Amino acid sequence: MPIRTHRGRAAVYRRLWGWPLRSPKHLILALVLLVALVSAVGLLLPEITPAGSTARTDRESTDYAPEPEERDSAAGGGQDVGDRDELGGAPPTISVPTVTPESAPPTPAGMDVVRSWVSNWSRHSPDTTRQQWLDRLRPHTTPEFMGVMESVEPANVPATELTGELSAESSTESSMRVLVPTDGPTLRVHVVRTEQGWRVAGYDRVD
Fold it and tell me: Source organism's superkingdom (predicted)?
């Protein structure tokens, strides 16, 4: 029958705790049972721990996985970059209209420079050296265009004199393009205003 009083339970506990001490055989048997219990627990723990560790690892890896919203935003960011690349990757530019210089009547001083330049350009003879020919052109020519004229052979100039009046094809306050007839081709001479005055900056043939 069950034990219903505290004194009865205490008496049972005293018997259980005191049983190993009643004799050496009881003590040895109690130690063997304790060792067997500890060994059984030790064998069971390694089987339980790896499963728990694996579960924790799975949870940790899941915690670091990106959320769907993050993946969508990352994909959207890449698409934005692609759109910018398709558009050229540069901000839009604002075009500034080019200001065209206003026309002005031909300047007599500029026309005189053109006349002197063409006269010296077409005046050459077999006994004229290249240096002499260049020295005559230098006072009426820009330094930049003189570098071009230094490569010209005077004997190859296809004219010997002017044959008519000069006419301005276009003119502003700072530059003019003047048509000059010669006994060879008609020249279009470009003359510009510099700090030293009007100077020839180039020419080409009209015909």
Answer: Bacteria
